[in-house]
Amino acid sequence: MDLQITPKKLSGAVTPPSSKSQAHRLLIAAALSGGISVIHGLADSQDIRATRRCLSAMCAGMEDLPDGTLRVHGLGNGIVIAPPYALLDCGESGSTLRFLIPVGLLIQGEASFTGRGRLMERPLKPYEDLFREKGIAWKLADNVLTVNGGRGYGTLALDPGTYRLPGNVSSQFFTGLLFVMPLLEGDSTLVSTTPLESRDYLEMTRQAQAAAGVTSRWLDENTLFVPGGQTYQSFEATAEADWSQAGFWYAADFLDSRVDIRGLNPDSAQGDKAVSELYWRLARPGDTEIDVSGCPDLLPPLAVMAAARSGTTRFVNAARLRMKESDRLSTTAALLTALGGRAEEGPDFLTVHGGTLTGGMVDCANDHRIAMAAAIAATACTGPVTVLGAQCVQKSYPDFWEVYKNLGGDIHVL
Ligand SMILES: O=C(O)C1=C[C@@H](OP(=O)(O)O)[C@@H](O)[C@H](O)C1
Ligand SMILES: C=C(OP(=O)(O)O)C(=O)O
After folding, report:
1. What pLDDT is attached to residue 84?
2. Where does the UniProt annotation locate this protein (predicted)?
3. Closest listed residue to residue 111, CA positions, set 127, 133, 89, 129
4. Pocket test for ligand 2, best of 92, 95, 370 (most atoms within 8 A of CB)
5. CATH homologous superfamily for the domain 20-238
6. Is the pTM of this model over 0.95?
């Protein structure tokens, strides 16, 4: 779907959908438990559907109630996950794939993972290296990854112990391991061999586990101690509003729209709540530097703010942005330059020069956050903006265009 946007300021109230990151975690913690958990406020999106689909394929029960509540029938303390083989279609969701690979080792036989778009090209090496070191079967061929925890043969391939991973590729590997470690018979430690980036995402994992009565503790800033022999208890929880998505509405306000952003938890464990402070930092004129290693998903909306401010903004520690749904350093720079802005990418940074945006044609590169950033940038352009492939917002915010229109956005489908 291609859209033409005629620049208009937006106005009205918005409640962002519930946090995708929190939703993945609550679903997995509920599925690993031994009872029926109740989750309120889950927003629908392609990524959340992917996690639900995979957990269902592992035999967790998912029951949607008419009031929007989801009841999850857990697998039984994760000890026996029923099928002897499961084919798990992760769609385009990196979180689903990386969170569930270790969970797949609990299946009696093989678990195969597949995905679409760029998913299976996104990094998996930290798991591959670790699995090879531990003697766990790993095969990636023709877009399908197969792992085998060997549970059907009376052994548990994932032993308690020390697990070392680089901390600068994706925090999602740490989350995946952290989900299964408490179920092992003995204690484990999870060690980041480089300074751990996106640490708040691990805190979100620990928070979802805490809801299910599962604990771990930091020994130092790169080492997490995970007691073994724990079980996930069923729980009731409400998913909170998504700070990463709120970032786009903050950017709209930065560009002089009047969007009243509602429902956000200021004490949230979501690291992307940093947008509320970064907004004010960017509002001050002059050159500035922003470290996005802890909040990579904020880069597209922050870059749009940077394009309209007075001064140069350098986003640093951003190498991981190249490994998202698109190479986001490149696609964010391309988005801004296509609209008449000035931006340059480096290997691990993006420099954005403030100025005015004129309009033009943006290719979303199948990246939801590029599509939403383009929509917000359009509100400040002097001429029309064409957005190619706008349907990719389905990944995380399916009614984004509807909301944009309700706020007064002027869009029509080409
Ligand atoms: O754990 C999570 O929910 C996520 C972690 C981040 O990934 P990285 O840790 O790979 O940067 C983030 O970009 C992604 O959208 C969601
Ligand atoms: C990178 C993202 O998600 P994931 O890694 O789960 O695909 C995202 O939502 O921007």
Report:
1. 66
2. Cytoplasm
3. 89
4. 95
5. Enolpyruvate transferase domain (3.65.10.10)
6. yes
